[in-house]
Design goal:
The complex is a heterodimer of chains A (179) and B (262). Chain A has 179 residues and is α+β, with helices and mostly antiparallel strands. Chain A has six helices and four strands. Chain A has helices at 2-27, 31-40, 49-61, 68-74, 79-104, 119-129; strands at residues 138-141, 148-157, 160-169, 172-178. The longest helix of chain A has 26 residues, at 2-27. The termini of chain A are far apart. Chain B is 65% helix and 2% strand. Chain B is rod-shaped. Residues 43-67 and 94-164 of chain B have low confidence and may be disordered. Classes of the chains: A alpha+beta (179), B mainly alpha (262). At the A-B interface, helix 1, helix 3, helix 5 and strand 4 of A face strand 2, helix 3 and helix 8 of B.
């Protein structure tokens, strides 16, 4: 009788520690490590929606958008989780559509999508409005902040086709993202 | 002799005939009921929608989290929900009641707020405490003279080409390690070589890694002046001085205002 109770207690503390470790990593800004860590313990915590949400935001902050697919599938039980699931799904979808548009010249101008505050959504909206088909590197100015601009182009990362977005402030490169 | 099989068959037919009116009546009633229900279903969708929307309009107090908002251009804006973080905070509070967590750096949930902060120099200045600069202010003022000697000396221009390979290695290492000292070194290197764009870039990156390095802010401001953004440099220095009380920054601000540093 004692051993099952001990195992139950041990597994509960282990899950708690896993979530807390992930939360600590997120707070320290170790998003890539947090994403890897969350993925390692994902199967055990699949029904722990706060944990899954935090894995999603860690991966999103680390620009690892492809890792959001299982995350958004696992979020469904609470309004909080469903909001995050829809948010992640939007960003994944916009990335996939941008990739198809940039690599295969698929016209996506007529698509009407929701938007979000994420950089990909911003650039997606700008691309849909003006695809600049003749430019290999598409440059857009942020309508909300004229000093902020973005460059969207195709790239290869670790032998995989991907898209890159560079953030510029006053024409000076500030952040480089590869999705 | 009685033919039992024939009699049984006749009895079965008789029974079926006796139940037939009930079957017919039941079938008719059922078909009428199904018809009525189908008719109501085809008529009601509009009503259903109306009641659903009414519910969503009436119930925001009951439903605490409507994550979908409408922007100015009638475009739906999806926002992340951060209520799940409370679960972690409560957990940490219950397990470690005496330890205090630092404020959570959450992804921006606002509609028009970018997820990544715009690296506008004044906004990135959040220094909790002042630490003494790594070099004395006099040493910092000597930086332009060093750059002058570098530009005037021909033998040093040969070293530049050699060190170009090294700086690439340093840049790679800085990308991997995010070491503030490396970033500062690279920013200083580019500033000395007159590449003020890159100097600004690396000083900014260094400030993002560690915003308490005096020289990094000074290089940042000097690069801004060299790029013709004197007002922005002044604002950055004023904000930095107000938070760090740096003598070196104050000296540079005075020099910029008097026009001694251009």
């Amino acid at each position: 009788m004692r051993s099952p109770l001990f195992l139950l207690f041990f597994s509960c503390t282990l899950f708690a520690d896993t979530g807390q470790n992930l939360f600590d990593m997120y707070q320290k800004g170790m998003y890539a490590q947090g994403c890897d860590y969350g993925y390692r313990f994902f199967a055990r915590n699949e029904h722990n929606e706060p944990f899954v949400s935090l894995v999603g935001f860690s991966c999103l902050k680390a620009d690892q958008i492809d890792r959001l697919s299982p995350v958004m599938s696992a979020l469904s039980q609470t309004p909080d989780a469903r909001a995050n699931s829809a948010y992640f799904a939007l960003i994944v979808m916009q990335k996939k559509l941008l990739m198809q548009a940039l690599f295969d010249h698929k016209p996506i101008q007529k698509l009407q999508f929701p938007t979000s505050g994420h950089l990909l959504s911003k650039v997606f909206d700008l691309y849909v409005k003006n695809p600049k088909n003749n430019d290999p590197v598409k440059e857009y100015q942020d309508p909300a902040n004229p000093r902020q601009s973005y460059k969207l182009y195709t790239t290869h990362s670790d032998g995989r086709k991907s898209i890159a977005i560079d953030e510029y402030y006053d024409k000076i490169l500030t952040l480089h993202h590869v999705y | 002799m009685l033919d039992i099989k024939r009699l049984e068959r006749r009895w079965l037919k008789y029974k079926i005939k006796s139940f037939l009116p009930y079957f017919i009546t039941l079938f008719a009633v059922l078909s009428v009921l199904i018809g009525i229900s189908l008719w109501f279903n085809t008529e009601k969708p509009a009503d259903h929608n109306r009641t659903d929307t009414q519910k969503t309009i009436v119930s925001p107090t009951a439903e605490p989290l409507p994550p979908v908002a409408m922007s100015d251009h009638n475009k739906t804006v999806l926002e992340p929900s951060m209520e799940f973080v409370q679960a972690f905070q409560n957990q940490s509070v219950t397990s470690e009641p005496e330890t205090k967590l630092p404020p959570v750096a959450l992804p921006a949930p606002a509609v028009n707020k970018p997820v990544r902060p715009i690296p506008a120099p004044p906004k990135t200045l959040h220094m909790p405490e002042y630490t003494p600069p790594p070099e004395a202010p006099a040493g910092l003022r000597a930086v332009p003279t060093v750059s002058r000697t570098v530009t005037n000396d021909k033998s040093l221009s040969i070293n530049r080409n050699e060190s170009k390979l090294d700086i690439e290695d340093l840049q790679r290492r800085f990308k991997e390690t995010s070491n503030a000292n490396l970033g500062l070194f690279i920013a200083r290197y580019y500033y000395d070589h007159g590449d003020y764009n890159e100097a600004y870039n690396y000083a900014l990156k260094t400030n993002n890694v560690n915003n308490r390095i005096d020289e990094s802010w000074i290089l940042f401001s000097k690069s801004l002046v060299k790029l013709g953004k004197t007002d922005q440099a002044k604002k950055t220095l004023q904000l930095y001085i107000s938070q760090s009380n740096s003598d070196a920054a104050r000296g540079l601000l005075d020099a910029i205002e008097k026009g001694n540093f251009k």
